């Protein structure tokens, strides 16, 4: 016991297997426990980093998918706008064509009325000519 006390004072201790140690058994046990806790912490940290890496990858994929859908939506919207503009242009062309045809119809109506008057005049002339004979 006295030898153990002298060794203890020098910072040397015997463990449960009677091996000579620099740390006292209680301190050695706490150190081993701390080492295990640190190892567990490092493992958990690595696992957390892996999970985080997967999450970041997933978020990146989602971001790319969202960007792709956004571009499709912009394309569809632009297509709709161009179709609407085409329809507008077609409508204007048709309106112009209708106006042109109405003017043509009016010219034909006037020409028809004129021809009807000429025909009536000629029929009257023919009738007068026949009656004179």
Automatic annotation (TrEMBL):
Q: What protein name is recorded for this chain?
A: IFT20 protein
The record's section on InterPro entries has: FT20 (IPR028172)
- Primary subcellular site in the record, as a coarse category: other
One GO biological process term is: protein localization to cilium
Q: Which GO terms describe its cellular component?
A: centrosome; ciliary basal body; ciliary base; cytoplasm; intraciliary transport particle; neuron projection; non-motile cilium
- Where in the cell? Cell projection, Cilium
Gene (UniProt) = Ift20
Looking up Pfam families in the UniProt record yields: IFT20
The entry's keywords: Cell projection, Coiled coil
Q: What superkingdom heads the lineage? A: Eukaryota
Coiled coil, from the record: 80-111
């Amino acid at each position: 016991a006295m030898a153990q006390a002298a060794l203890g004072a020098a910072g040397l201790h015997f463990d449960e297997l009677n091996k000579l140690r620099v740390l006292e058994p209680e301190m050695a046990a706490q150190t081993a426990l701390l080492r295990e806790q640190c190892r567990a912490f490092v493992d958990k940290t690595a696992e957390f980093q892996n999970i985080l890496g997967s999450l970041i990858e997933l978020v990146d994929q989602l971001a790319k998918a969202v960007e792709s859908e956004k571009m499709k939506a912009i394309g569809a919207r632009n297509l709709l706008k161009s179709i609407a503009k085409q329809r507008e242009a077609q409508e204007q062309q048709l309106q112009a064509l209708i106006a042109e045809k109405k003017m043509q119809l009016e010219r034909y109506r006037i020409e028809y009325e004129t021809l009807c008057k000429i025909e009536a005049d000629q029929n009257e002339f023919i009738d007068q000519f026949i009656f004179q004979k």
